[in-house]
């Protein structure tokens, strides 16, 4: 998912360089949304792993 966010970010940068402001804005918005979804899923994953984690073996 982070790869998709980076892809849309690159598309936004390239579109901005060539002057396509509408496409650049849309791609940047999509990249931002996907990035925040990634961060939320990462946080949920870390919390779930901490809750059901096993004790280390001695």
Automatic annotation (TrEMBL):
Belongs to the UPF0391 family. Keywords: Cell membrane, Membrane, Transmembrane, Transmembrane helix. InterPro entries: DUF1328. It comes from Thalassotalea marina. One of its GO terms (cellular component) is plasma membrane. The chain crosses the membrane at residues 7-27, 33-51. NCBIfam families: PRK13682.1-1 (NF010226), PRK13682.1-3 (NF010228), PRK13682.1-4 (NF010229). This is UPF0391 membrane protein GCM10017161_15330.
């Amino acid at each position: 998912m982070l790869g998709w966010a980076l892809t849309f970010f690159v598309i936004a940068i390239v579109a901005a360089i060539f002057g396509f402001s509408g496409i650049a804005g849309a791609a940047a918005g999509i990249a931002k949304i996907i990035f925040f979804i990634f961060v939320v899923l990462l946080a949920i994953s870390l919390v779930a792993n901490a809750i059901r984690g096993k004790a280390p073996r001695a």
